[in-house]
Amino acid sequence: MTRAVIPARERLIFAMDVPTPDAARKLADRLGDSVSFYKLGLELFMSGEAFPLLDTLAGRGKKIFLDLKLFDVPATVAGAVRNLKDRGVTFATVHGNQAIMEAAAGAAQGCGILAVTVLTSLDRGDLDDLGFDCDVEELVLSRARRALAAGCAGVVSSGLEAKMLRAGVEDRLIVVTPGIRPVENRPADDQKRVVSVQDAFANGADYIVVGRPIRDAADPRAAAESIQATIAGLFAVNKGDAHL
After folding, report:
1. Residue 96 CA to chain centroid, in angstroms?
2. Catalytic residue among 39, 62, 63, 69
3. 8-234 has which fold?
4. Residues 52-62: tens digit of each pLDDT
5. How large is the average pLDDT for residues 15-31?
6. Which of 41, 110, 111, 120 has a CA that sits 20 to 30 A from residue 77's CA?
7. CA nearest 157: which of 142, 80, 227?
8. Per-residue pLDDT tens digits for 28-57
9. Stretch (H or E) spanning 52
10. How many whole angstroms separate alpha carbon 65 and alpha carbon 111?
11. Does 170 or 60 have the greater pLDDT score?
């Protein structure tokens, strides 16, 4: 699992944040070939029948980002990751604890482990409340370095810190950036540290995760295709290479 060359249309990961597998299948049908990479998270996995949905999407040739942010004793996390073998999962997330990251990376078989650095719904005030006596940037960089040392494929990080990661961590680290919003006149929601599509990639992200701007659009497929067109324009010169 490396940054080598990523097809441009796979750089958009759609966050399938809907309440039921049936709703997910209907939305996937609407999106068609406008999306080739899906993120499945806690909401769907608590609804039942999430693995059959995963199998359906994988059977359609879609890539899967399993975002469960695993956090438990290392042996339990390792066992959970081991059970993802042959399920068609490209990426899976764990929280950035050293022992957990090492256990997950050691158990992964064909699945890239991504460490969560700092959730994009958190800001400096939230970190103060959690007892972190450091800047957001310092914490993200520290966790990214530890993730790479633990054998993880990459990290999940705000686009605001992506440029710093590119400067401060080995270039082989994959950076997946959620919290993609129009920076001006953006709707109010729980995402605090956000960037635009263009800024995320300019700062060094390899993939972006987009949910509500596509899901809640009047025409989700058109919204996804618009983002795909933006990405294609950004990487046209490089033909999808991981470097802008």
Report:
1. 14
2. 69
3. TIM Barrel (3.20.20)
4. 999 999 999 99
5. 96
6. 120
7. 142
8. 999 999 999 999 999 999 998 889 999 999
9. helix 50-59
10. 9
11. 60
What are the pLDDT digits (tens) for 62-82? 999 999 999 999 999 999 999
Active site residue 85: no
Paired sense of beta strands 63-70 and 207-210, if any: unpaired
CB 18 within 8 A of CB 216: no
CB contact set of 200 (below 8 Å; sequence gap of 6+): 159, 162, 177, 180, 208
Long-range contacts of 125-131 (CB under 8 A, 24+ apart): none
Tokens of 118: 């700092």
Please give the sequence-ordered ranges of beta strands (E in DSSP) within the chain, or none if there are none: 12-15, 37-41, 63-70, 89-95, 112-116, 154-156, 174-177, 207-210
Rounded Cα distance, 10 and 131, in Å: 37
List the domain boundaries for the chain: 8-234
